[in-house]
Amino acid sequence: MPKKKNSKRPTSAAKSRSTSGTSKKKVVSKNPASVACALSDDRSTKSLPQTSAAKTQLTRVMIVDDHELMRFGLKELMAGQPDLTVCGEASDHQDALRTFEETAPDLLICDVSLKTSNGLELVKTIKAKCPGIRIIVLSMFDENLYAERALRAGAVAFVSKQQPSRAILDAIRTVLAGEIYLSDKMTRDLLQRAVGQHAVSPLSPVELLSDRELEIFQLLGTAASTVQIAKA
After folding, report:
1. Distances (CA, A) of 213 to 37, 155, 228
2. What residues does 109 pair with on adjacent strands?
3. Which domain covers residue 174, as residue numbers?
4. Are 60 and 103 in contact (CB under 8 A)?
């Protein structure tokens, strides 16, 4: 009898091999800032694996302060937290923008007073580039002068450098939970001012200055030259 011909169908493995060579086009953004922002937003929205042994998701923190000792202290503070890692640091406006684009942090900690510019201007610039970034502002100056300005600039927390070091960790935990962090006193003052209660002390002439006017006022107090003030 004539033998029957065996008709073999291609297996799924064969199909996989035949299509494995197909290349996918990669879209590359020409704007480094948009890439950094996209990476940061992707990490902040990515959920943890649903397993009991899920690894801790690291929050990438960038520090901007013109004092090296302050940056070192903040890095040491972060080193003791298993879910926080410092991905970059900078001392001035331009260095901060470059480092931000290179490292794509999830959280930015910025001093309000930098050598070459006002830290609030940096906050506004970065917030415009990446609206989803969480920003904590630090300052050695009175919170009555800068806390509300920091929030208007785009920050979600203000911490005075006169507070205990634990305050910065409390601020980080608060903003990562999606909330705003201020001192208890500043929170009460803003709430009372918002509802129009007269129990709050009237604003001082310095508090009524615009951000730019306050920056110039601050530079005058450091004996900066007119040329330095004009360049600021």
Report:
1. 31, 20, 15
2. 63, 136
3. 33-40+56-182
4. yes
Q: How far apart are CA 59 and CA 136, in angstroms?
A: 14
Give the DSSP letter of residue 118.
B
Instruction: Find out whether 175 and 107 touch, Cβ atoms under 8 Å.
Output: yes
The count of domains in the chain is 1
8-state DSSP, 203: P
Cα–Cα dist 195/134, whole Å: 27
Kindly report, residue by residue over 76-114, the tens digit of the pLDDT. 999 999 999 999 999 999 999 999 999 999 999 999 988
CB atoms closer than 10 angstroms to residue 104: 23
Q: What is the pTM of this model?
A: 0.68
**Position with higher pLDDT, 5 vs 58:** 58
CATH code of the domain covering residue 73: 3.40.50.2300
